[in-house]
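Reposting from the mailing list since nobody answered there.

I have sequence plus structure tokens for a pair of proteins and want to know whether others read the tokens the same way I do. The first protein:
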Amino acid sequence: MVQQFEKWVELHTDADIEYISRKYGISSVVAKILSHRDVTEEGIRSFLSPSLNDFHDPFMLYGMERVVLAIKDALLEQGRIRIIGDYDVDGICSTYILYRGLRFFGGNVDCVIPHRIADGYGINMRIIERAQKDGVGTIITCDNGISASEEVKKARDVGMRVIVTDHHEVPYEESEAGRTYRVPDCDGLVDPKLPEDEYPFKGICGAFVAYKVIMALAGSEGCEATKEFQSLKDEFTELAALATVCDVMELKDENRSLVVNGMKLMEHSGNIGIRSLIEKTGLTGRKITAYMLGFVLGPCINASGRIASPLKSLALIAEPDPNEASKKAAELTELNNARKEMTAEWAEKAFKMLESAGITDKVIVVYLPGCHESLAGIIAGRIREKYVRPTYVLTDSGDGLIKGSGRGIEAYDMYEGLIKAEPLLVKFGGHKLAAGVTLKAENLDAFRTCLNENCRLTDEDCKETVRVDARLPLYRADMALAREIARLEPFGTGNETPLFMGKGLKLTLACVMGKSKNAAKYRATEEDGLSYEMLYFGDFTGLNTAIENSDSIDVLYTLSINEFRGKESVQLIIKHFRISDGQ
């Protein structure tokens, strides 16, 4: 049966699929998938063969020339430059890229990454005061700063040069006259989300912005093609790719080229710390995938910023000694294991709380006093996934404040929701699908009420939309098509794994697999009587119940290649199911 919060939508296109298929030598199925991913006819060749040459010129970013000039002035002065980063994967990679890049150009550079608990997100007044005491002449932010107008003003008032590099939404105020943006008044600013920016692709992460700053600087210095800089560029490509996946950027346009090439480089990583982390997580010698970046390597780097200090992860990436890097990588994997246990414990408490209270709000707000605030976003994501509603998880922050993170759904803009609740908030930031908030504990109920009173979500909005690329009988899901689909990898946000619909199947359970008995193999028989092997991972009791209570089942499945002991075979994995509607 279809899950309670799920609806299947078959995608359609106006493109001439047969013409595209003939012109580019691809199957009609793959031509249709590319059309569904909004890949233009002109972009098909680069999508199928992504190259670093696909990158847009960094000087197309609004304000890049001014940023480069400001950095050159700082380098000429030979004064102290301080990078201010963020505590997640994107922020840590951004920090390292700017730090290592400016060192390459002879800069006297150090870096500060705010502590999640002690400092909160982004540059703050304490960091500025410390920089002033330390004699810092130039501050450069990365993955933060666009919402720090007051902090930037303070730094400039005391004589520091400030350069902001960011990728987050620009803060704004709504009035009868329209929208007024609040942009920090600084010496250089680059952010693809600036209203006046005409950069061809807005969806790049903070580390990719930092990468482009260094590339622009190298271009202006005429050293792009040197052997020494090429080695640095490869290392930065790996890190920007890692950050792109971990920051859940769309794998389209130049992001796709970045991630494809970054993963190839990472298989023989030029960064000693990343190489050690690959070894400690058991990935040595394996083809690096987007899944490994987002769910194996990334969480280890994130763990230090969640339950320890993000400087531990930065130290790993910057470590030149293999023995020391191995120790640092082992520590991060242990931190991540501890984080997993803490998350599971508090997520269970949150679900029990919601189940006992009942779900009535369209925007869920859960208060978990005592929960480590770094876990709030992960738990909010799990609640959002189960109930398909925008969710905030809040916890104690001290001094009468509560703090937390939110995760959204397609039909709801988290940032706009917070704009309406701004009078109740001490601090907030984010974008459409994720946000962070700090508020006084006494305003908790008013915050929940405000979000829901201004929410226009319908019951239909609160159903997961599962997009189906094509109805595909199982006999057509062969090795040739599987190889074509493999060319569309990596899959992720903006380039989701293709889903195919199999109609009216008769399923029989063949066997239960796995040490935890959490996988099952089925025989799927189509109307022509031919049978095929399909797999299901997870709790398959619902599927078995549906089989027992119906004559036939509709499934949504993925098609991939399984390699075992050197032998390749087609693999069909059931992702969704329902009792057949007979259509």
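The second protein, same order (residues first, tokens after):
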Amino acid sequence: MSAESVLKRAKEVVENIVPASIEITTIEFEGSVVVIYTRNLEEFANNNDIVRQLAQGLRRRVAVRPDPSILADEKEAEEAIRGVIPEEAEVTDIFFEPNTGEVTIEALAPGVAIGKHGAILNEIKRSIGWAPKVVRSPPIPSKTVKEIREYLRSVHDERKEFLKRVGNKVNRALNSGEQWTRITALGGFRQVGRSCSLLTTRDSKIMIDCGIDPGSDNTPFLQAPEVQPLEQLDAIVVTHAHLDHSGLIPALFKYGYDGPVYCTPPTRDMMTLLQLDAIKVSKGEAKNLPYESPHIRELIKRCIPLRFQETTDIAPDVRLTFHNAGHILGSAIAHFHIGDGLYNIAVTGDIKFEKTWLFNPATNKFPRLETLVIESTYGGYRDIQPSRRDASQQMKEVILRAFSGNGKILIPVFAVGRSQEVMMVIESLMRSGEVPKRDVWLDGMIWEATAIHTAYPEYLNSQLRTLIFQKGENPFLSDIFKRVDSMATREKILDDPDPCIVLSTSGMMNGGPVMEYFKAWAPEPSNILVFVGYNADGTLGRKLHRGMREVVLGNKINPTVVKVNLSVENVDGFSGHSDRKQLMNYIGSMEPRPERIIVGHGEESKCMDLASSFHKKYGMETRAPMNLETIRLK
């Protein structure tokens, strides 16, 4: 069925289901969603059954939006909103989403802004036409979130046209002949870094992740004939924001890709932050990334965010659903339903099958599943991590040891995920008096990444949401945390003789502000370097972990030799990756149990070991492919 025939069918279904009293002005595609514009939005809102019947009749996602002609000018609408909402609601921001006809009102007292039985919202809706939504203001304002919102408003018309093109492409007619499905390993198999896969069917091509290799300049095998030309890709799906999964996506827009990128809303914002910082860091190190900031803006413009459990068509024969992966904010397991019940495959990205200080454990219950692609970062036989409680105790002992010797603690962290968990543990230890209260400095992107966490509380675990929004206890807002916002502040910290803790990027010590602290503090035996995450082969973090005691930094013309006399500690329990036991349990308790498991995202020995163990214990087909291998699934 072509896009034209789908729209024709949509008009027929609408005529049969929608009462004649409701005026329909336009029906069109926006991405894979059939959007129905009306001048009688309230009547739709009062009858949810109509939308349900439309979705069932069309077998597609349906959205009902106000016709643009009934929407007040944004400036006038904002004045009207502020005139209606009481001052005690403390409105902090109002932003309009022209694509949906919604206006989001952020307020410190959302109940006051809503009014008794929604009276204030109803008054706003009647006076401006926009559909109002009230949310609690994030406790830490995010510059990234604000700028992305403003940018998307500025390219509203371009984005609308883009979504129409996506809708037409998704709803194109299928080819005839035998159906088949296969997956190609383009990066991140028998290694950690440059994650990239290509899911191919008779009718479509979908790229899953496209990352950099933090330990080298290697990139995914994008010159493989099945990948080129990039214009033929139907979609790019991003499991999460870390650069080893998202760091090369802007370059795809530089070299010809112009299609959609599917990810969760936090992933869009987080990967934007990380990619922009990667450009900044590379220029500071006299290196060049294969893209610039305009390519990141193209990526933002083409992002189609999906929430967990939300299913959408991304190709004529492929539907995508995201499920919680438990790794970092917004990290998702991508589940693909291919054809009309032909095949189901899920790609985990990075997962954590344990409730952490921030997130619920990864989902392992799916409606249907034949093949699972799973990570093996800590999949080796001896890879058993301490519990979160043990990690907290170990962190306490490290802090006490350093402070008792008047030493400083340097913790290289990924800005997203590990830093926030480490912050929560340190805050708890200092609040309870288990360790002395000292300054905890946040350098690099950690402050902004933390702000993005507070903008998406629905992606945090239920206990943390309750703590923040019902009890008013936000560990991220503790006065122990200080922001390093300038070179002068950094120099002040370096020169200060008093003990302190610094959390700084990058987590693998392959660049970033962490290097300034390392150069200054490495020669002093009383200081401690604490790793709380994975260090890939080739990175300075891995070399220091293995015992390197002398580091040469800088360039060949003017090298700096740094003597490493400080202690190097590893606190494993903070990892966002599942360990060997958790990975085995993830498969053991999975429903339904897949027929085949493909193992990647791990060193070669760990991929092979984990694949063998899954086969021996659960009797299923397992593979640990090399990069550039293709596996036929159906």
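Reply #1 (J.P.):
I read it the same way you do. The CA atoms of residues 170 and 315 lie 5 Å apart.
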